[in-house]
């Protein structure tokens, strides 16, 4: 599994969103994209992060960004999460773990002495040319969108 760096081309992907529609990164060519990876729908940290993007969504759009969330949950779980919190952006179902592996965020984790594989919470800012401009590896879940706005100012 490769570790991606700023200045590299973002791997393209095609997967279904919470509405069963196929979404590809290449659909967003010419736009700035916030591609954020999170561990699990409807958990405290992931909910705080998604709601931060929701609450600042208009500001992000005004700055020229599209927001895409990715987790290994399925479409049904994403749809429930989107509906419960009124999320205005695409949530990609990566239940085959291809995208998380391509982006190097499927990692070994440790909780309560148990080791398991899971998604490292990471945000990629991808430019209109498909090049990774910034990578946020230490995501502040409650202020995730502000972290991005701060990078842009």
Automatic annotation (TrEMBL):
Any one Gene Ontology molecular-function term assigned to this protein's record: thioredoxin peroxidase activity
Enzyme Commission numbers on file: 1.11.1.24
Catalytic residues (UniProt): 46 (cysteine sulfenic acid (-soh) intermediate)
Catalytic activity annotation: a hydroperoxide + [thioredoxin]-dithiol = an alcohol + [thioredoxin]-disulfide + H2O
Domain Thioredoxin stretches: 4-153
Any single biological process term in GO: cellular response to oxidative stress
InterPro entries, alphabetized: AhpC/TSA (IPR000866), Peroxiredoxin_AhpC-typ (IPR024706), Peroxiredoxin_BCP/PrxQ (IPR050924), Thioredoxin-like_sf (IPR036249), Thioredoxin_domain (IPR013766)
Keyword entries, A-Z: Antioxidant, Disulfide bond, Oxidoreductase, Peroxidase, Redox-active center
A GO cellular component entry from the record: cytoplasm
Assembly and oligomerization: Monomer.
NCBIfam families xref list: PRK09437.1
Function: Thiol-specific peroxidase that catalyzes the reduction of hydrogen peroxide and organic hydroperoxides to water and alcohols, respectively. Plays a role in cell protection against oxidative stress by detoxifying peroxides and as sensor of hydrogen peroxide-mediated signaling events.
Family of this protein: Belongs to the peroxiredoxin family. BCP/PrxQ subfamily.
Protein name (database record): thioredoxin-dependent peroxiredoxin
């Amino acid at each position: 599994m490769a570790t991606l760096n700023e200045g590299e081309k973002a791997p393209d992907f095609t997967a279904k969103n919470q509405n069963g529609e196929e979404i590809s990164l290449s659909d967003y060519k010419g736009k700035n994209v916030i591609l954020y990876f999170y561990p699990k729908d409807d958990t405290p940290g992931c909910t705080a992060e998604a709601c931060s993007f929701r609450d600042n969504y208009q500001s992000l759009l005004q700055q020229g960004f599209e927001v895409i969330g990715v987790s290994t949950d399925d479409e049904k779980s994403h749809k429930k999460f989107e509906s419960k919190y009124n999320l205005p952006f695409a949530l990609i179902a990566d239940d085959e773990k291809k995208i998380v592996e391509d982006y190097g965020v499927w990692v070994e984790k440790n909780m309560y002495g148990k080791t398991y594989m899971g998604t490292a919470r990471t945000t990629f800012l991808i430019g209109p040319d498909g090049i990774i401009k910034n990578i946020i590896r230490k995501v502040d879940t409650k202020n995730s969108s502000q972290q991005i706005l701060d990078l842009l100012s």
